[in-house]
Write a structure and sequence with these properties.
The structure is a homodimer. Chain A contains 13 helices and 14 strands. By secondary structure, chain A is α/β, with parallel strands linked by helices. Chain A has two domains: 145 residues, Aspartate Aminotransferase, domain 1 (Alpha-Beta Complex), CATH 3.90.1150.10; 224 residues, Type I PLP-dependent aspartate aminotransferase-like (Major domain) (Aspartate Aminotransferase, domain 2), CATH 3.40.640. The longest helix of chain A is centred in the last third of the chain and has 26 residues. At the A-B interface, helix 1, helix 3, helix 5, helix 6 and helix 9 of A face helix 1, helix 3, helix 5, helix 6 and helix 9 of B.
Chain lengths: 400, 400
């Protein structure tokens, strides 16, 4: 019984070790979870209730693959209002979180071996989605203001690529934001070298300081940007509800692919979320999230400032879920976490290795601050600092 | 901007014409929808309410890719009780309806060009799911007692195949049931020729007459049967909740693929359905469905007996959603429906051509009876009979 090549590759992705790193007595900076205390549970219960109460026999039936039109209209209106886009419901497909948008875009574009540019590091679930279509990856470093365009141009001059995957706002895993200038230049490169930009923006609405800047999609002149949004981080992950923005022509092809993948997303959930958005202010809910997450982020930055050894470097992101820790070259954060930090200090993070398509960078770590209490952030970072100081005092070959 | 080969193929699948065939003034026998009047709306509303009321902060959070364990336990227990299987929750993955099970199985097994046996005719959404992985199809006819095993053996002697896709219970589109003897023989062939059987059973619990027979999975001796079930036809499609049964080793690989495709299915929906199953009798609900659908099926068979011209043949299935109409060889049911039946008689069905991977059989049609009133069944079949009699009186070259 021979499995497909993609399956063999996927089972080596290292996701297992990542998930195994979570247990009750561990302070986990590894997850990418929103704070469960902040879910709008009562309002969501009311929205489901109202949807059932108003039902005329269609709520539990099949809807359409594209998705419930009033909700798509609301999503379009919101993006138009906040980001200066001019979308209608016809530009939007409802998806199973943003994750399915990653799968469907790869499915739309990739034949085996086709070129894909990914950021280094990038979202591990992006690689998991794309891996199924067996692309050739070209990795471009992420700088403090986003993608390294000089490095990107070198790739584009040598290789044909189908799409470039980027998380421009509060990047997963580094927390960085791509500058406006780079967003504009990236679209120009896409036009010049004929590729699609896959813009993944699940954290976009979670800015704690600084000014909101337009999405890459706002600079799109030739319909080359496929934009992914999600309610997972701003309302609730278990809704499994995201959206994909593309030109109507691309959207038609993507919708046909989604029909083959899962027929459609839940009409019931779409109706309930539409009701929630009708009777509640998402902006007010976002203010609650941002106030709380900003406090946690500041607590983590303060603790890191206090407890990290001098050889460790970290950033102070303006939003999102994560910040990025860099240890000296040659220091293996995966080995450190699995052999020392997790079993002894009972703290976990996501080591950098599997966040690079190339698996070439071993000295970084992603730290989440949204789903940890301020107290645990302080204790966990203190324990991390102590364990790191000890490990760094040892000969580096032990960790290399 | 070049799309993937699969995308170009998918946009030619003919699904568009099928969906376009539905409008308000049409009596549609084309759909595959359950009767919206029979949804357990009140009980489902109560289940969502109870789930929200009992929530300790996890209901709206990420769950696991495998899915909510109590629900997987209930599904296992039900299959064990009714079908003599010996499953645990560890054998079950929750999916987005059975459709995602089709996608994930193809993703698990297929490299481009790999062999897949499909029934002729088969579920059009099966072909849409598999098409994404660019298989080589081998089509085996469906007889009144299921798959033609003589024809299958000829294929197996000549070609290596990865899996065989079958809908053994109340087959979509023909309504036939595979005999027990053929189920046993099919498993033996899978063992002998080293392939997976993908058993798709969304209609299995909807038997209106005759005795329930074991699923193919019950005869599985080497873990070669992947079994798909769904709540879409027995509770509600908009839950988007199905399940996949496989050996733990295969399930582990499939779960990793699902994580890349959409992270997980909705934890909220799984908890609510689990609550529904705790406080309601699914068997009692099924009795309601079966009583109503049996009346509709009988009404359709009676109307066909009364109104069909002699040259038309149809079957009388023991369960499910569909029966199958056969017109004389050379009669093109797609042309007939699009040019005459739909615009003039305002009746629609699913013509056979796109239900065959080979597109070689043009004289069949699938008729759905579950989502049409008894009155519309009588009127629609009368109109169909009249239009068919007229068309058959014309020289066949007009339709050929």
């Amino acid at each position: 019984m021979k499995l497909a090549n993609r399956t063999i590759k996927t089972s080596e992705s290292g996701l297992d070790a990542l998930f195994a790193a979570t247990s009750a007595d561990v302070i986990s900076f590894a997850g990418g979870y929103p704070d469960g205390q902040l879910f709008p549970t009562k309002a969501m219960q009311a929205a489901f209730n109202a949807s059932f109460a108003a039902d005329q026999g269609t709520l539990l039936q099949y809807g359409t693959t594209t998705g419930y039109t009033p909700l798509r209209q609301k999503i379009a209106a919101r993006l138009n209002r906040l980001d200066g886009l001019s979308l209608t419901a016809d530009d939007i497909l409802l998806t199973q979180g943003a994750q399915q948008g990653l799968d469907l875009t790869a499915r739309l574009l990739l034949n085996k071996g086709d070129g894909v540019v990914v950021e280094g590091p990038t979202y591990i679930g992006g690689l998991a989605a794309f891996d199924a279509y067996e692309p050739t990856y070209y990795e471009v470093p992420v700088q403090s203001d986003g993608l390294d365009l000089t490095s990107l141009k070198k790739v584009l001059l040598k290789h044909e690529i189908k799409f470039l995957y980027t998380i421009p706002d509060f990047h997963n895993p580094t927390g960085t934001v791509m500058s406006v200038e780079k967003r504009q230049a990236l679209v120009q490169l896409a036009n010049q070298f004929d590729f699609i930009i896959l813009e993944d923006a699940p954290y976009r609405d979670l800015r704690y300081s600084g000014e909101r800047i337009p999405p890459v999609k706002a600079f799109d002149t030739e319909g080359r940007v496929i934009y992914l949004g999600s309610f997972s981080k701003i309302l609730a992950p278990s809704l499994r509800l995201g959206w994909l923005v593309a030109t109507p022509a691309l959207l038609k092809a993507i919708t046909a692919l989604k029909a083959g993948a899962d027929v459609e997303s839940s009409h019931l959930v779409a109706v309930a979320v539409d009701d929630y958005l009708t009777h509640n202010s998402l902006d007010a809910h976002l203010d609650t999230l941002k106030t709380s997450y900003a406090v946690k982020k500041d607590a983590m930055v303060q603790a890191l400032t206090q407890y990290m050894p001098k050889a460790a470097h970290f950033n102070n992101p303006e939003g999102g879920f994560f910040l990025w820790l860099t240890l000296p070259e040659g220091f293996d954060t995966e080995k450190f976490m699995l052999e020392s930090l997790l079993p002894e200090a009972k703290v976990s993070f996501v080591p950098s290795k599997n966040l690079f398509a190339s698996k070439s960078v071993i000295n970084g770590a992603r730290l989440n601050f949204t789903n940890v209490s301020v107290e645990d952030i302080e204790h966990g970072v203190a324990a991390l600092g102590s364990a790191l100081s000890q490990a760094l005092a040892q000969p580096i070959s032990h960790h290399g």
